[in-house]
Structure prediction request, 258 residues.
Amino acid sequence: MKRTEFRWSRIALLLVLVGVALTTVARAQGGQMQFKVGDRVEIDVIMQRNPQTSVYKKGTIIGVDEKDKSYVVAVDPLPGKLPQEYRIPVRDYGPHWIRAIAGADNAPKILTEKLRTDDNGTVLADRELLDCENLKHSGRNGSPPPAELAKNLIRCLYEKPSPAGQDGATTMDISSFIIGAPHRWRVYVDMGQGNANTLVYPVHVKWTMKTFYRTRNVLTTDKEGTFTCFADTTNLWQCGSATGPHKDGKTQEILVKR
Prediction:
C-alpha cells in the first residue's frame, strides 16, 4: 500500500471513530435522568416518534431505573379508578415523551389500604364475616320475618370469605332496611318453595359492599335494591333478589399495599 493511501485510510478510520464517539455522547446526553421520584410530569402515552400525534396525560414519577434508563409514571386516574403505570424509556426516546408540568400542580390523592392475609396467603376482609353456613333461619308463614334475621339472610347473598389461598372476600353492610306490605306467593315470580297461602314480604335495602383483592379493593357505596322474604313450606325463612327499585351506587377502587 502506498504511503498516501495508508494516510487516507487512517483518516477515514479516525472519522468513523469520531462519529461513533459523537453518537455515544449524544445518546448519553439523551439518556440523562433529569427527574426524580415524586416529580409531576406529562407523558406521551402513545410514545410515537411524531410529536404531532402525542397524547399527553399528567402523572407522578414513582420509579427511576438508572440501569434501564427509564421512568415509571403513574398517570392520574379517572374518578373511582386506580392510576395506570407507564414505563417511559429515556435512552433513544423521543424528547417529547416526557416533560415537566409548567407551574404548580398537585397530584391527586390516591386511597390506599394494607393487604391482610392469613398464614395460607388467603386475602382477608377488614372485619369478621357473618357465619352464613350456620345461620339459623327457621320460621312460620304469616308474620313478617324478624328484622335482624332478614338482614342477615340478605347479607348472606353477598357476604363471603375468599377461597383458600385466593382473594375475593366480600362484605355487605346494610344502612337502611324497610319491610313493605306482603303479597301472596306467585308461581314463576317469587323464588323458593311456596304456595298460594305463603305471604311474601318485599324489603327495600340500602347498603355498602366491599370486595378485597391482592392489589386493589373495590368499594361500592349508596347501593339500593329490592328483595323478598318468606317462610317456605319447610318452615325456613328465605330471602332473595327481586324486581323493584334499585340503584347501582358509586364504585371506588382502592390501592392495596403490602
Observations:
- The mean pLDDT is 87.
- The CA atoms of residues 34 and 116 lie 37 Å apart.
